[in-house]
Amino acid sequence: MNSFDIQFHNGQFHLFSSKVSYICELHKDAWLLHRYWGPRLTAYHGANCPEPVKRTFAAADPEEPAFSLEMEPQEFSCPHQGDYRESSLALRRQDGWPAGRFRYQGYEITEGLYAPEDLPHIRPLDGKGAKTLSIRLRDEASGAALTLRYSVLEDSAAIVRSAEITNEGTGPIWVERAFSALLDMPYDGEELVTFHGTHQKEFQMDRRLIGHGTISVGSTRGASGPQYPPFAALCAPEATEHSGEVRALQLIYSGNHCVRVERDQYDHLRLTTGIHPEGFSWKLEPGERFQTPEAVLVYSGQGFNGMSQVFHQLYTERLFPRQWAGRTRPILLNSWEMCYFDVSEEKLLPVIREAAALGFELVVLDDGWFGHRNNSKSSLGDWTVNREKFPNGLTPLLDCARENGIQLGIWFEPEMISPDSDLMRAHPDWAARFPDDAPLLGRNQLVLDLTRREVQEYVLDTLSGFLRTYPVSYVKWDMNRHMTDPGSASLPPDRTGEFFHRYMLGLYRILHELTARFPEILFENCSSGGGRFDPGMSFYMPQTWCSDNTDALDRQSIQYGASYLFPPSAIAAHVSAVPNHQTGRMIPFETRAALASSANMGYELNILDLSQEEREQVREHLALYKEERDLILGGAFYRLRSPFDGNLCAWMLVDRKREKAILYAFAASYDVSCLSAVLKIPYLDQKKLYVERNTGRRFSGEELRYAGLAVRFPQGDFPAIKIVLQTETMS
C-alpha cells in the first residue's frame, strides 16, 4: 500500500496514512456507516461488524427488518429517521416539514485539500501530499444535497472532516443544525477529556467517566470562550501522558460551538461537534450552499503527548500563517500592567530606551492611547491618537524605537464600540441589538455588528489607515466581552438565526483582508487572555495571549492545559511583577522566568522601577532565552507531571534531533516528606548519553526513560528547577 491514500473497494472507503486508518462503508448503496478509526490497517474485512438483530421498537424498512439506524454506526444522522441519538444535520422545508432522508449518490477522490470558502482551514503544504474524499448524498423530497468531505494527510495521524449542504430544490430550505463531524463507535470503557475555565483561569482539565445519556460542552457566547474550548478526547481508562489510546477532535471555529458525547442503551458512543444549534438557523435559497467549519480528528496510540504532537505539528505546518513559519518571534514588553490606561509619550519614550538597553525586541503600547480613553467607559471605535497623551502622534515612539534598534506594537479592540464614542454617535445602528430593547453592556461596551458589510469596511479602512500612518510591527487584537442581544437591523425576520455565524464570517473576512494587506505585522490574538483561543483564530494569528492571569502558580495549569492543543510558539506568556496583580502572590523571579520561558516569552512590569540587581537578572534572562528560543519555539513539547494531579508540575522541550532538552519542574509548596520527585522521560534517544549542563552528571536516554530522573526541590514555596541535557557520544 501507499504511504497515504483513499481507496474504494467492495463498498468500503478506506482513508489511511502511515499512522491512521479511517473506514466507512455503504450499506445497500444507500446508507453510509462508520466502521473503523484507529491505527493504520493494511486490510479490513469487517471483523468488528455485529450481526444485525431485529429489536422491538426499532424502526426499520419492512424489506430489511433487522437493519435499523438506531443500532448502526453512522457518518451523519438526521432526526426522525429511526435514529433517536444526537443528530448531526437538521433541515426544514418551506412548508414547515423536516427534510433529511438522504441517500447515497456518488463519490469523488481528489488530490489535495478542500479549502472551505470564507472559513479558516487546514492549508496545503509544499512537499507533502493530501487527498480528499467527497461523498454526495441527496434528499429527493426537499432537493437538499449533502456532501461529506474527508481529507487524509501524508505523515499525519489527523483526518479533516467537514460537510456542505446545497439547495438543489425549487424553494428555500432552512438549515437548523449542521455539525462538522459525527463519530459512532462501541463503548469500551472510554473516558472523556475536555477543558473548562473562566477569565484568568483558562484550560482547566476535566477527565470523567461516561455514563448513559449525553454530555454536552460548548459556547453560546458568540465566541469559543474560555469556558469550554472546542475540543474533546475519548481515551482508554489506562491512558496517560505517555501511553494508551486517545481519539480527539478540535473544531476550527471561533464562535458558538458544541461537542457532545452520547452513550446509548446499547452501549454505543456517539461523538459530535459543530456550530452550536441553539439560536442557529440558515436560510438557503435555491442554488445556495452552506459550509460547516472543519473538524480535525486525531488518533494517538502514545497517550496524550502523542495526541498533542499531532496537533502541534499539524497546526505549525498547515494552520498558522505561512509567513510566520519558523520565523523568530520578538521578546516583548507590554505596557498594560506597567501603566494600565495611564500611557503617554512622556512615559513611553524612556521605557523604549530602557527596554532596548536590557535586550527586549518589542515594546507594546496597550490600551489607553486613543480617543479620550482614560478608563474602560469610552472611545472604542474611535481609533485616533489621543493628542493630550501623545501631542505629536505616535511618530516619536516609532522614531525612538528605530533609533534604539527595537520594534513598536499597538493594542486594538476593533470588534467593540463604546456608547461614549464618536462612532456610536454617528452610527448608533452599528451596535448589535434587538430592535425593541436597550442592549446590555459588558465591560462598559457594546459589540459592533460585523454581519454588516459597511461595518466590516469601516474596521478595515480605519485600521489600514492607522497602520499605514504608523507602521508598527505588532498588533494585539483583543475582544473583552461576549455577546448579548444578537440582532442586526440588516437581517430580515427569516434570517435572524444567522447572526452569530454571519458575525464570524465578517470577522474572518476582516482578518483575512488585514493580514493580507500587512503580512509583515505580527498579529497576536487575545480575548481578555484566552477567551477565544482556538484553531480558527490561530489561522490568522500565530500566537495568543493565553491568560490575563500572569501569576506563575496559576499559569502552570493554564499553560499545561493549553499545551494539549497548541505548541509553545502559539502560547504567549509574560514575566510579571510581584506581588502579582491578580493574586497578590510573591513568587520568585526564577519561577516566573521559567514559566514564561516555556512558551512565547515577554514581560509585563515596570522596568524603570527595577534595582540594578533586578536589571541584571532581566538582562541575563533575555540573553539566555534568545540562545534557547529556537529550541523552545521550534522543538517538541512534552508534559511530564500534571499540576491537576498534585503538588508538582513538569514538562520538557526537546530539539528535533533529540540532542538537547530543557526540563522545567515546579512545586506549588515545599513538602518536607518529599525527598525527591522522580520524573520518567520517555522522549529522548535511548541510544545516546546525555550530560546535565550545570552538574556534568551523565545519564543514558534509556535510564531516563525507564528509571527516571530524581529532582530535588529547595526549601520554600513556588520553586522551579531547570535542567538542561545535551547529548554526548557514547563510547
Question: What can you tell me about this protein's structure?
Answer:
There is one protein chain. This protein has 731 residues and is α+β, with helices and mostly antiparallel strands. It is 18% helix and 31% strand. The protein has 12 helices and 39 strands. The strands form 7 sheets. Strands 7, 8, 9, 10, 12, 13, 15, 16, 20 and 21 form a 10-stranded antiparallel sheet that branches. Strand 36 (689-692) and strand 37 form a beta hairpin. Helix 3 (345-358) runs parallel beside helix 4. The protein starts with a strand and ends with a strand. The model has no long low-confidence stretch (mean pLDDT 96).
- Distance N to C terminus: 40 Å
Oligomeric state of the chains present here? single chain
Strand content: 25-35%
Rounded to an integer in angstroms, the radius of gyration calculated over CA atoms is 27 Å
- Uncertain segments are none
Task: Categorize the overall geometry.
Answer: globular
Mean pLDDT: 96
Count all strands and give the number. Answer: 39
Helix proportion: 10-25%
The description of the largest β-sheet is: 10 strands, antiparallel
Structural category: alpha+beta
Work out the helix count: 12
SSE blueprint:
Layout: E1 5-9, E2 12-16, E3 21-27, E4 31-38, E5 89-93, E6 98-99, E7 103-111, E8 130-139, E9 144-153, E10 158-167, E11 173-186, E12 191-198, E13 201-209, E14 213-219, E15 231-235, E16 246-251, E17 257-263, E18 268-275, E19 282-284, E20 289-291, E21 295-300, H1 303-318, E22 332-334, H2 336-339, H3 345-358, E23 362-365, H4 395-403, E24 407-412, E25 416-417, H5 422-426, E26 446-447, H6 453-469, E27 474-477, H7 499-517, E28 522-525, H8 535-538, E29 543-545, H9 554-562, E30 571-576, H10 589-597, E31 600-604, H11 612-634, E32 636-641, E33 648-654, E34 660-667, E35 677-679, E36 689-692, E37 698-700, H12 701-706, E38 709-711, E39 720-728
Helix pairs in contact: 3-4, 6-7
